[in-house]
Amino acid sequence: MPIIEGVNEQTANSVALHTSSGCTMAGVDRPQLGSVKTPNCDVNAPGQGANEGCVVSSGDTRTYGKGFNNNKGGVYATRWTAGQGIQVWFFTRSAIPGDLSSNNPNPDSWGLPVATFPFQACPANKFKDLRIVLNLTFCGDWAGSVYGNTGCPSTCVDFVQNTPNAFGEAYWKINSLKVFQ
């Protein structure tokens, strides 16, 4: 179970899974705080954006961007189990469970997660040999494709290349990263 603690400057408050075909969350009971934005985890799902995956959005502005930074960050915790699927929790600094600090996590005591991805219509074997990757992709598949609709000047790539001062607050400051098995 990865536990990510830190401060970031991201522009979205969503959790997403990206898979090949044969993984959907449509019509599945999902006890969670967030709301389903897109149900199909397939990166090529019809009726969804390219590489969108299955997305759960949180209305909590403390989970990203300026709200996240103003609260001096927080903790994201993810649990993967074959029986329960994947759940993602977010805790503000003042609400971090004591069992995380003591390195003895007990997710069953944390309440509803922000996002739940059960393996009812998505085989657990879609999620194996996983890696933790943290990056800032300014003009990736999603951002690069919607940039032209924002009213911002030029193209996403040109803006990033020619306006480096616009990204002085774009960083990850990670206090710790823990994985429990």
TrEMBL record:
Gene3D superfamilies named among the record's database cross-references: 2.60.120.200
Pfam families, A to Z: GH16_XgeA
Highest taxon, organism lineage: Eukaryota
InterPro entries xref list: ConA-like_dom_sf, Glycosyl_Hydrlase_16
PANTHER family: GLYCOSIDASE C21B10.07-RELATED (PTHR10963:SF24), GLYCOSYL HYDROLASE-RELATED (PTHR10963)
This protein's name: Glycosidase C21B10.07
